[in-house]
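User: Need the bound-state model for FE2/S2 (inorganic) cluster:
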Amino acid sequence: MSVDLVIVGAGPAGMAAAVEAAEHGLSVTVLDDQPEPGGQIYRGIERAGPELTAILGEEYEAGRELAADFRSARIDYLPNSAVWRLDAGARIAFSREGSASTVSARRVLIATGAMERPMPIPGAERPGVMGAGAAQVLLKASGLVPAGRIVLAGSGPLLLLVGCQLLDAGAEVAAVLETTAGGDYLDAAPTLPRALAGWRDLARGVAMKRRLRRAGVAFRSGVRGLAATGQSVRFDGGEIACDLLLLHEGVVPQTHLSRQAGLAHRWRPEQRHWAPVADALGRTAEETLLVAGDAGGIAGARAASLSGRVAARLAAGVDPGRLIAALDRERAMRPLLDRLFRPHTALPADEALVCRCESVTAGDIRQAVRDGAMGPNQLKAFARVGMGPCQGRMCGLAAAEVIASERGLPVEEVGSFRIRPPVKPVTLGELASMEGEAADAEAL
Amino acid sequence: MFRRLPERKASVTIEIDGEPVSTAPGDSVAAAMLAAGIAVFRHAPVDGGLRGPWCAMGVCFECLVEIDGEPNRQACMTPVREGLRVARRTDGSEPGR
Ligand SMILES: Cc1cc2nc3c(=O)[nH]c(=O)nc-3n(C[C@H](O)[C@H](O)[C@H](O)COP(=O)(O)OP(=O)(O)OC[C@H]3O[C@@H](n4cnc5c(N)ncnc54)[C@H](O)[C@@H]3O)c2cc1C
Ligand code: FES
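Assistant: Bound-state model below.
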């Protein structure tokens, strides 16, 4: 099978790209590993009833129209399809409902979005501790609301947003522990000039904080020494009992597919994450591969759908025109937000599990560095870090930062894990189903 | 541990560790398990510690369970389906359901 454009991911970036590309007459296949379109921000939007949309608000509701346009576009949409291999030659291997297939394209758009930055505090791996975004996923997809006392800890706009949404869902939010001193900036926000790029997001941050405070949620900022016990959260100078601890320190691009495809990645110190090297329109060093949305660097849902449309027009050989200016405006908001919500730089405590799959602590990694591990790839040999089923998704960032600090080097010099296919789990049964495509051995 | 918004109606029955559990269409297996009050999904293979879902979106691999006889499937990435069978890889020592 061969098409003009394969899009990986059906979040705002992938959905908007698909609609735009189809309008320009391209044959489009969209592969997404979720059962329905929406990506992270609009997850479950098609099934959301009035109760859920009342909780999640207008921003979520905005996804309904995009999802409807996506559904009615002349495209081939394959849900439940996990892409596990991508070649620069624009050949893709994926698994869907128990069988694996390949598809070729003239162009591939990587729109795999973001994941929450893992926050390796001691005890974070215990049941009763989750990502704040994970709680939001459960709310969006299944209407689940945590019962019992909840504490949120970390930083970033999504931490406050999830706190407010859980309150609106009737949950008991006991406290928000902010690791940034950023709370103080937020308090000063109303005095900043309204013309400032990002002012609106800032004002929203202030409103969310006020809402939480009014509901009686305790706030602390500049919190250090976080640790989860399973029944409580401890920090320097205190401890709060809770049934569920939700951690969040911003979101970072999902780079496994772009890395596996061989694209170069750049460390972005202001956001403390890696992103594929691409120009402002999403063009990479490989002519066949484009990137859009948060997969290319965190810029939020509006920028994601704009960048998806820009990439679709490039793939169709059409001038993106005014979309470029709109995208630039959207991205201009980021620097301020990045500064305000920059995840704090304290490195994980020695006893914190950095690699959950292989149960390797930050202390073990520091020891491995003393023993001679120079970078993440050597850590695999020294301490099995990154060798487990998550393939380094949970430990990659923290491991690189720990090594960099131990060696007194910038993170970009320490580097990151080499990523090999398959980037998502493939079963033997799925591989067996590829036989006849004459691709099985070669595809791996 | 979790309650469900009234607008979500349970109409799918799956089996968790041999017991029938009713869940809502659109649930992942992980959501169905959490809604049924199950926080512990497995033991960590290296240190034996108790683990459960962290990301709910397919990146952490902490939600691995046996699904329809196949071990190590991501519960958060598997949609529920009538009659689906889940078995946890635990030794029964974890705090109750
Ligand atoms: C858990 C979470 C919750 C969030 N909630 C909000 C929110 O409420 N409000 C907000 O403004 N922002 C939120 N964000 C930020 C979010 O990144 C952006 O708002 C927006 O969703 C980005 O859009 P996107 O299209 O770039 O990617 P996404 O929306 O992330 O979509 C990417 C899609 O690609 C799929 N995918 C990834 N890899 C593969 C693969 N290998 N094979 C097949 N499919 C794949 C993913 O499952 C997903 O469906 C959230 C982020 C996370 C991680
Ligand atoms: S909960 Fe993280 S992979 Fe399933």
